Amino acid sequence: MYEASLESELDPDIQLYHPELSEEDTLAKLKGLLKRVVEGSPFYQKKFKEANVDIEKIKSLEDLKLLPFTNKEELRDAYPLGLQAVPDSVIVRIHSSSGTTGKPVIIPYTRKDVDVWAELMMRCYMLAGLTNQDRIQITPGYGLWTAGIGFQLGAERLGAMAIPTGPGNTEKQLELLTDLKTTVLTSTSSYALLLAEEIEKRGLKDQIHLRVGIIGSERWSEKMRSRIENELGIETFDIYGLTEIYGPGIALDCSYHEGMHYWSDHLLFEIIDPITGEQLPEGTLGELVITTLTKEGAPLIRYRTRDLTRIIPGLCKCGCPFPRIDRILGRSDDRIKIKAVNIYPGQIEDIIHRVPGVSSEYQIILTRKDGRDNMTFRVEIEEAEDPVKKGKTEKALGKAFKDFIGVSVDIVGVKLGELPRSMKKTKRVIDEREL
Questions:
Q1: Beta strand 330-331 pairing with 311-312
Q2: Are 164 and 156 a contacting pair, CB within 8 Å?
Q3: Pathway involvement (predicted)?
Q4: Domain 1-332 CATH (choose: 3.40.50.12780, 3.90.550.10, 3.30.450.20, 3.40.50.300)
Q5: What is the per-residue pLDDT across 304-361, written as a single tens digit (0 to 9) for each?
Q6: 204, 173 in Cβ contact below 8 A?
Q7: N- or C-end of the chain: fewer Cβ atoms within 10 A?
């Protein structure tokens, strides 16, 4: 009786392919959210008063643009618990951002918030074809960070076996991958690549039972994706999330890998021009802005993520009716400006993809001498020990930078595996111009 009930509750056909989605439902949730924050959030009471917002004027989703944006700096200024919109008695947990660039952002969660997050993570797993028979090795960090515990919440809701290794200790990771016959790896792309290289070095590939990788936390190129998939013999899925919203599990690409489905029954996405703030139509690249329709502990309205993407028009071939965003191109605040040219990570990864014999791993060093900026692009290439082939590849890369971005850079090819590897996010840009 219990098993039949559980199977019905976790039926991916109901969860993913026949949800109740409508503009009327979204508008009702938006109005409910506005009522909640006006009644219970000192943060939004003050913000709406300063912006002269009357929530009674929000009659349609088109009126969303009448509401002010919320940005990361405001969240930092609200430290420690200025974002809390409900009494202490219903807060069951907090998480926070790393705070590496200032005060951390602390996000309080109610029991319902935790339950919704678990459901969103479970949907991601189901969209990737996971079941309660899978064994999910969770390598992202635990603690105040949302990653590890988010992946675990989804695994437990799905009924799968969670293997909460956390980050680091590669020896133990490899031991558990083989001995427990792990079928799913959750990690950053950098750590998935590191594990893949270690498995290859030690000849463990025939002892690994992995079939799926759920990869997130940092940008990763199609070339890096191909390397991870080929070396581990798995299919990878790109997962998206932010601590400020819930954590990982906001969106995931399906088996067609043509954009990431996002859970529009809980989250309202819009794309804006990052400079003017103007809303942009579907299909246009811009900055992603998120409104948390059902969040209680620390709801956010029109939160500027700084992530660059677009909403993909039309339905996905997989049949899932949840809308999609494109893979993240970069951030509006992580562009490299050199010689009056703006360069985004996605452009660099596109160039790498175009030139044969070039690995996914690169490092950018920015320097300034006599008032002139210079960019050195160090990149792993195949057969780097052959000076003729190395020179040919370096020349092709330099031409690609000039042709596609319009900037001249110094190319330095290095052997595969020579650049640093990371168990977390890989630092790819070293800016020495202000040191």
A1: unpaired
A2: no
A3: Aromatic compound metabolism
A4: 3.40.50.12780
A5: 999 999 999 999 999 999 999 999 887 766 677 777 677 777 778 778 888 888 988 8
A6: no
A7: N
Over residues 153-180, the mean pLDDT reads 96
CB 262 within 8 A of CB 269: yes
Specify whether the CB–CB gap between 70 and 53 falls below 8 A. Answer: no
Place of tokens 């939004």: 44
The crossing angle, in degrees rounded to 10, of helices 345-354 and 222-232 is 60
Q: In the chain, where are the structural domains located?
A: 1-332, 336-431
- pTM greater than 0.85 (yes/no): no
In whole angstroms, give the CA distance from residue 47 to residue 37: 10
Q: Which CATH superfamily is domain 336-431 in?
A: ANL, C-terminal domain (3.30.300.30)
Are 251 and 239 in contact by the 8 Å Cβ rule? The answer is yes
4: confidence class by pLDDT, cuts 50, 70, 90: very low
CA dihedral defined by 70, 72, 78, 84, rounded to 10 degrees? 60
